[in-house]
Amino acid sequence: QVQLVESGGGLVQPGNSLKLSCVASELPLEYYFVGWFRQAPGKEREMVSCISTSGAITNYLDSVAGRFTISRDNTKNTAYLEMNSPMPEDTAVYYCAADALKCYDFAEGFGSWGQGTQVSVSS
Predict the structure, then answer these.
(1) Quick one: average pLDDT of 88-94?
(2) Is 101 exposed, middle or buried (0-12, 13-18, 19+ CB in 10 A)?
(3) How do residues 101-118 score in pLDDT, each as one tens digit?
(4) Count of CB atoms situated within 10 Å of the CB of 109
C-alpha cells in the first residue's frame, strides 16, 4: 500500500500563498488518483481537490476553485496543493489521500491517507 506524508502547512496571512506537498513511498504514486481533503474543528472531512493519475483531469471544491491548484510530479512521487489567496475559512488540517481506482468525492473511498498538516489562515 502506498504511504503518504504531507508537509508545507503552517500559519499564513490572508491573501498570501502556501504550497502543500504529499510525498509517496512504498509504491509509485503514478498508479494512484490523489485527493486533498481538509477537516476543520467540529466539521466533517471534505474533499478540496482531486487529480487523475496523469494529471490531465482535476476537480475542485467550489469554494476553492480559482484559488487553489492541484498538481503532481510523478517523477518525484509527489502531489501538491498550491493555496493562493487563502481565507480564514480555509483553516483546517489538510490530508492527502490516494486510491488506485478513481477520484472519490467522499473520504471513505480512498484507501491510503497521510497524517495531515495544519494550515492556519490568520492576520
Answers:
(1) 97
(2) exposed
(3) 999 888 888 999 999 999
(4) 15
Name residue, grid cell 508537509.
Answer: 7
Q: Could you identify the residue written with the cell 492576520? A: 123
Based on its alpha-carbon atoms, the radius of gyration of the chain, rounded to whole angstroms, reads 13
Q: Which amino acid is at 96?
A: C
Are 14 and 87 in contact by the 8 Å Cβ rule? The answer is: yes
Can you tell me the mean pLDDT for 46-68?
97
Query: What number of other Cβ atoms are within 10 A of residue 68's Cβ?
Result: 21
Q: Which residues of 1-24 are buried (b: 16+ CB within 10 A; e: fewer)?
A: ebebebebbeebeeeeebebbbbb
